[in-house]
User: What shape does this take?
Amino acid sequence: MRRIEVAGEGFRPYAVLVGEGLLAKAGELAAPLLPRRRCAVVTDETVGSLHGPALIAALERAGVASTVVTVPPGEESKSFGRLEILCDQLLALDLDRGDQVVAFGGGVVGDLAGFAAAIYKRGIDFIQVPTTLLAQVDSSVGGKTAIDTPRGKNLIGAFHQPRLVLCDLGVLSTLPERELRAGYAEVVKYGLLGDAEFLGWLEANGKAVLNREPEPLAHAVAHCVRMKAEIVAEDARDHGRRALLNLGHTFGHAIEAETSFAMLHGEAVALGCAMAFRFSAREGLCEAGDAERTEAVLAAAGLPTRLGQAPGGPFSAAALLGHMRQDKKAEGGSLVLILANAIGNAFAARGVDPDAVRDFLITEGAQP
Assistant: This one.
């Protein structure tokens, strides 16, 4: 088991544990954080049926009483309507601020349950038990919680750090191949934004990670968590370096919105990363070879790298640009994109010319 500490200004330190068999130990690991030995386990129908009994049994062995609250799977659950229902369910359980919410699922469940915990009785603690590769390497760590609106993804939310994160690699055995590849996009993102050596390791070992070989998979997950923990320690509330973690997300979120979330988040991030590097090369910020290498490593994993691979096209450049203007990083109505000088050297570009982005989107296959 690997243990990574997350600590920074303004929140209590917590541990991220990465390894096999952590679900069976969840009760003994969580119990010290539960003085009243009570929690609500928020999960979706798929994860609950596959892994719920194991988690509930582990909690029971540690003397922790739990109630399962189930939400429908899919991005549609990250909505005001579902948030209202979930908060009412938590209130009906009469949880108090000494109890905890356990977010047991992928990124959707983590975001929804974490946001509900952030606002329930002005804040209740929660534990993340992520069950997808994407959630384990990215969304479960760092305290970002949010829901979507018709105007865009993750626009309503709060910073609310978990008390503990349990990344059981064993649960990834039931993850569909498409979901695994989508999570791998976020793994590649870490190499692209700040660790060229790690990207080289992925080029050599990516197939083993995607084949779920235990040691390469554990190394990849733990390495990404360490990178994120270091960034969160420096910039917990996203005022500086943490923005680099959004490499590919401004393009990706716009595409997700235009496809009505027909693409998985990781698929959109992969496409967004490839576009960010091509835009960087077009603007003379990085070498064309860096953009080609980025596209190659993502394509080798079966991920989309071209706008024409996104469902629902052709897209309107104006519509995509409109979504990008709604991005949380936008400042005073001007675009902020995460671009790159080289693989492993991303930066936040402020005041990006929207006409340059529009022209680029058209060259990528969007309609004027």
In short: The radius of gyration is 20 Å.
